[in-house]
Amino acid sequence: MSTASTDDRRHADVVIVGGGVVGSSIALHLRRDGFRGRVVVVERDPTYLRASSALATGGFRQQYGSTLNVQMARFSLEFYKRFDAELVTPTHTPRVWLRQRGYLFLANAGNAARLETRFARMREAGANVERWNVARLREALPDAMLEDIEFAIFGPEDGYFEPREVLAGTRAAAEHAGVEYVTAEVVGVERSGGRTSGVVVRQNARHEYEISAPVVVNAAGTWAAQIGAMVGVTIPISPVRQTSFRAALPRTWPYRFPMVFDPDGTHWRHDDARGHDEVDRIVLGRSKMEEVPGENFEPEGRRFQTELAPSLYRRVPAMQPLEVVQCWAGLYEMTPDQNALLGEHPALPGFVIAAGFSGHGVMMAPATGAAVSQLIREGRCTKFDVRPLAPDRFDRGDPFWDDALI
What we know:
about 25% helix, eight-stranded mixed sheet, D-Amino Acid Oxidase, Chain A, domain 2, six-stranded mixed sheet, FAD/NAD(P)-binding domain, alpha/beta
């Protein structure tokens, strides 16, 4: 493992702001792709207590309605399938608990037409998806009440993993490959000659110094807009709270739930026991469309009894009574079209943005790392056509819509 000094080596070839799963994936892919320059990742909180990648529920899917998102999701899935074997280091053995149990979207009279259209678009985009009738659904969810359900869309390669292990394994592999992590806060982005020239970091509330670099990657997640403002670049990303719950089932379930999405937006999946003494649990949540943007990490615990539990008990009465064992809140980094900002900002050469994933940052992190690595090394990305995700697309009135975002 290599660690940057705070007093001597003040130059880097690439500085990455944000050491979460996206920033660490970019750093790792640079090394795996043969980049030999000095890569420094600046992360202000190595505990990751408020990192979106650490607070995520860990779902992954390829059920998108655009070819670009499907390609990036499929690339990332293949990477995660090899993750435990390929990212072992002398100091860390990853275990991401990959479970390909599928994403299952239920359709009733209210959303059936929309899901039919989505299914056709996903198939056209290359996603591996199936349309299930109610009889097939009853085989998969024998305890569910399905009288109002007309059909479902199932992604057999989709599923979930442990996001904290993804983050820990990606960072450990990046460090082992020679990436340097600095625990500090970026307080300024420097520019010279019309392009990025480095960052100013602060340590211990008093010590400030500059790390010069021709390339600065803004992978600061929900704080990416603040980093952009330091250099006069407007980044349309807003933090939006998401409250999640972990609940103990009343008994050990005889089968495993996929990631199930009820028509009302409530979603749940199994949370597999890690040891013989652990109880059978599920992870559940529901996006709150009227949530006011802001850095709010206080979970809305009351929503379990007022919204989620009634929905679950209607759909699967045998779940009663669920016992909440954990309630937490994390932030989605939302853009106006709910897709990432990815690429060099045309107003500032050398300033690359990889943020605003709007809830699918962890599942897209490997593809993002590969794309940004190629952008930095070759000046363009041919692995994926990421031009629709250009950071200035909203300034040009050219948003990138995908009907399968949730």
